[in-house]
Amino acid sequence: MDPAAAAASPLADNLQRAISSQGALLGQHHNVLQDLLASQHAIGTQVAEIGSLIQGLTLRRSPPPEPVPVDVSGTHVTAVRLVNSNSSCSGRVEIFHNGNWGTVCDDVWDANDAEVVCRQLGCGRALSAPTRARFGQGSGPIWLDDLRCSGTESSLTDFPQTSGAALSPAVRLVNSDSSCSGRVEIFNNGNWGTVCDDVWDVNDAKVVCRQLGCGRALSAPGIQPDTTTVRLVNSNSSCSGRVEIFHNGNWGTVCDDVWDVNDAKVVCRQLGCGKALSAPRRARFGQGSGPIWMDDLRCSGTESSLTDYTTAVRLVNSNSSCSGRVELFHNGNWGTVCDDVWDVNDAKVVCRQLGCGKALSAPRRARFGQGIGPIWLDDLQCSGTESSLTDYVTAVRLVNSDSSCSGRVEIFHNGNWGTVCDDVWDANDAEVVCRQLGCGRALSAPTRARFGQGSGPIWLDDLQCSGTESSLTDCTHSGLGIHNCGHSEDAGVVCKVPQTSGAALSPAVRLVNSDSSCSGRVEIFHNGNWGTVCDDVWDVNDAKVVCRQLGCGRALSAPGNTTAVRLVNSNSSCSGRVELFHNGNWGTVCDDVWDVNDAKVVCRQLGCDVTAVRLVNSDSSCSGRVEIFHNGNWGTVCDDVWDANDAEVVCRQLGCGRALSCSRVEIFHNGNWGTVCDNVWDVNDAQVVVQITMNIYLNQMVNQKTNL
Fold it and tell me: What's the alpha-carbon Rg for the chain, to the nearest Å?
């Protein structure tokens, strides 16, 4: 063998073995590669399937097609969607209702509301709740507003909604400077509309206030112009400024006479502004314009509204704020009070209302001059315990019937008798009338002018009495003089006539031949005829029964065949020439042996007090200069030998408690005592005197103890 070939042979063998080995390795790699390719194909198939699955999931998460409301037992299921965004879980909120997509207003919109939307769409927790049309402005109706979700609801429409409505309508208060007062309007079917005030009351107002988050409802004005709104103006804050009252369609101011922090407290409470810090006067916040609606307010500070305070009252045409002609402020005007059946009980109420101590007398016949303007009240029959003249119930009567306990209901107000409209008139309202007239329980409450159509004003409408009130005006109503009725709707009442001892049925009674329905000749209706009552043993107890039956207050006198007495030729009904009525004629009384004892009898018979006394020229009705009313004039009392005992009598007469002092300040100088002139004398000077006196007293006490 060629040596070269022999040498190459092992190399070839090695090469062959290497090639065989590499071939085997390549075969293995090929097999692995084939396996990898097969696996890649499988993975590609899986990836494709996953991609397809993802695509399918993406398609299934696309916004739903336009839904159609489904009626299930009368309830519309409202759909919700998020639009104008790259994600189905973010965007502008839209609601499908009444066949249309509409938006949601962002008033008070927050994360809790957004949480409900996210839950409803299955989108996870809410990350934010954008407002101000972050995702663009929508079009069409705005279906929801003022949402206040807790965040736990399963749907936006699970938020409390108006009874009977599939979707809670938006509500707002307009035509006011505050978002928490004004005319109620509801948004429905793309439009704002109002709410009728028939039987509208504070319970309805509470719902609106709760829905708007405005705190408790203070009032529920319907069509009543007398319902007063208050505001503070001419300031940078809604809780400070000039007080203005909305009344009779106009804003007007409040006069600052006797205006104090108690009055301010009421305004602050009415506006929900916290406690009153001060009660500025003298137009601190600028002078207003228009009418001055209120004056002489004397609130206790506990009232919920300025108009809870009673009608302003004043005494004029006198040297004292605690005597004079009675005037009331109503509807922007001062007017007088008629003196029909006016007595000391009525006067007591005025004195209490003005903080003037007990009433000394109740002069009539324009003792303090004739007033001008309207006569606001008449036929007052106060018990004397009322806090205000207007607490006295409005006079009521039943007419056009043979009985004083049945007939057409009439109310006396503003000097006129008027009727009551029969809208929602029922047995409860009738019950109040019967109680007010002392006629027994109500048998029926006729409507549609059963007792004939009345004339004049219609004073009350939409009465909703519970039946327990003492007067019709205590019941919920539309406001005096506010109505939408005609006289064909005049209300009537039939009450059970009360029985009296010895009689099967109490006959109807009336008082005639007088200018007042509560004085005159007593007549009884029996067997179809009116007849008189004999005055044998007739006295004030009998008169009390008549007054009670007619609802006329307490009996002042019981004239029978006894001689009537009067005082004439004077400006006062409690002074003048004595005259007696006898045998159909008035005559005089001779003054032979006439003395003060005889005069006392006349005064007692007429219900006139003895000499009136007052304290004047002081900030209190229980301190001041003593004056006596005599012979039609006020005069002073000389201080000769005047002492604490005399003062005690005055204080007792005025109901002012014990006398504290009647002292005169004197100074010891140069061996003599002398008085102090009262020019510019004030409380500071008095405090100095008191301090000096106390120092002297304390020094004396110290000296006494030292001596011991």
Answer: 45
Average pLDDT over residues 194-204: 79
DSSP H helices, 538-633, are 540-550, 596-606
d(CA 565, CA 574): 11
The pLDDT value recorded for residue 287 is 92
Helix (H) or strand (E) holding 183: strand 183-188
How many Å apart are CA 526 and CA 514, to the nearest integer?
A: 22
Assigned token pair, 47: 């990836």
Mean pLDDT calculated for residue range 452-465: 90
pLDDT reading at 636 higher than 80: yes
d(C-alpha 460, C-alpha 429), whole Å: 11
Instruction: Determine the Cα–Cα distance for residues 354 and 344; give it in Å rounded to an integer.
Output: 15
C-alpha distances in Å from residue 235, one per residue of 259, 263, 275, 301, 392: 19, 19, 18, 23, 39
Nearest partner of 145 among 188, 111, 112, judged by Cα: 188
Q: Residue 90 has what pLDDT? A: 92
**92's tokens:** 């502008």
What is the DSSP code (8-state) at residue 357?
-
- For residue 2, name the pLDDT band (cuts at 50, 70, 90): low
How is 620-671 classified by DSSP, letter by letter?
A: STTSSEEEEEETTEEEE---TT--HHHHHHHHHHHT--S-------EEEETT
pLDDT in tens, 286-314: 999 888 887 777 776 767 677 655 456 88
Calculate the average pLDDT of the chain: 75
Q: SS3 of 44, please?
A: helix
Helix, strand or coil, per DSSP, at residue 246: strand
Asked if 681 and 689 touch (Cβ cutoff 8 Å), the reply is no
In Å, what is the CA distance from 82 to each residue of 89, 110, 121, 168, 322? 7, 16, 9, 20, 73
User: To the nearest whole percent, how much of the chain has pLDDT over 70?
Assistant: 72
pLDDT over 60 at 70, yes or no: no
Q: For residue 241, count other CB atoms closer than 10 A to its CB.
A: 18
The two structure tokens encoding residue 503: 């009689």
Nearest to 505 by CA among 434, 420, 403, 605: 403
Q: What was the pLDDT predicted at 40?
A: 47
Q: Which of 198, 247, 206, 192 lies closest to 222 in space, CA to CA?
A: 198
Q: Classify strands 564-568 and 577-582 as parallel, antiparallel or unpaired.
A: antiparallel
C-alpha distances in Å from residue 238, one per residue of 242, 252, 657: 10, 17, 45
Residue 558 near residue 542, CB atoms below 8 Å:
yes
Average pLDDT over residues 146-163: 67
Cβ atoms 432, 472 nearer than 8 A:
yes
Buried/exposed 608-621: b ≥16 CB within 10 Å, e otherwise? bbeebbbbbeeeeb
H-state helical runs in 224-288: 261-271
409, 398 contact by CB (below 8 A): yes
Range from 58-72, 518-532, 601-615 carrying the lowest mean pLDDT: 58-72
Question: Does 223 or 612 have the greater pLDDT score?
Answer: 612
Contact 69, 62 (CB under 8 A): no
| H or E stretch at 346 | helix 344-354
Which stretch of DSSP H or E encloses residue 43?
A: helix 3-60
47: confidence class by pLDDT, cuts 50, 70, 90 = very low
Give me 360's structure tokens. Answer: 């000394």
- CA 42 vs. chain centroid, Å, equals 83
Enclosing H/E stretch for 525: strand 521-526
